[in-house]
Request: fold
Amino acid sequence: MKSISKLFFCDLKTYLRDKQALFWTIFFPVMLVFLFGLFDFEKMGTSHVAVIDEAKSDESSKFIEELGKIEIFKIHQDEKDITKAKESLEKGNLDFILIIPESFEKPKDFLKIESFKISAGFNIPIEVYYDETNTQLNPLVFGILDRFVAYSNLKAAGAPQLFFLDKKPVKSRNIKYLDVLISGIIAMAIMMSAVTGMSTDIAESREKKVLKRLFVTPLKTSHFLMAKIGGFLTISVIQIAIILLISIFVFKVNIFGSYFLIFLVALFGCALFLNIGFIIAGLVKSTRAVEAIAMFITMPMLFLSGTFFPKEVMPRVMASMVDYLPLTPLIDALRKISLEGAGILDLGREFLFLGTWFFILLIVAIKTFRFKEE
Reply:
């Protein structure tokens, strides 16, 4: 045990003195937390709407006033010329132009909507100019305008309000985008440090003849491996703790599940990815080649396993395939714990995938890794 503890602390000190390793294992994940934490993903975008009031009547003023109460609309009334307004629209300074005609008065007939041209009275159009390339914003804004004008129709016609919304708030978990993202960042940090860190560490030790010198000492192979694995598991604990502390105390990230279970699942994932590190180190000899292979393996998983965006946005065939990547069940398990408060019994599917991958990779690692270079 003495040899294990000495080698463990020696490896840990060496790792903590390696600035490049510290950057990718600690500072890079923390940088991502700060980067995404500073963005307000919950805030809905504002649509800039120029309103040209040619009627200048009490009814048109009331119409504009009510329109300005809609949260996502920023009303601009300083633009009086339609040509200049269109130029602003083409330059991207405006999203929509609404023209209220001179004949706009309180109509005797209902207001009615025809396509995206809002018409009042005797087919007097309230024209709406918009950027046809803005395919995401247009349906939302036109839907709001449709409902707003429909409400104005009834109000102008003096129709009684037969139905209304009886709003009954129910307090639910306030889950932010960063709450979802943190689990992915933790899994990413663990995978990158385990795969790249272990494989390059072994490759450098082999190139510097450290493994060869250790082989002629009384040090057992099992002790060497236990010290290495223990060191990387300790690094993972530090990674998880720092990411969680910054996320919770700086960006108020919500964790609804057990912190102990988060660490337990994450460390199991670390052990899984350490096997990949051993496999790469066993098959590839040079450090540069090891780094390239490690990046080749980890980068696709990083972007396909739902680290930064949901798998649902992928094509259906691809989404079903990425479920079987080693990183996917780790992220899913961490998100279930942190967002849903899941217990260990609720993670059966995730543990099945993680356990299967662990034993497959362990067998391959045993077959491919050699303590001494042949």
Q: What stands out?
A: Residues 2-40+176-368 form one domain. The chain has two domains: 2-40+176-368, 47-157.
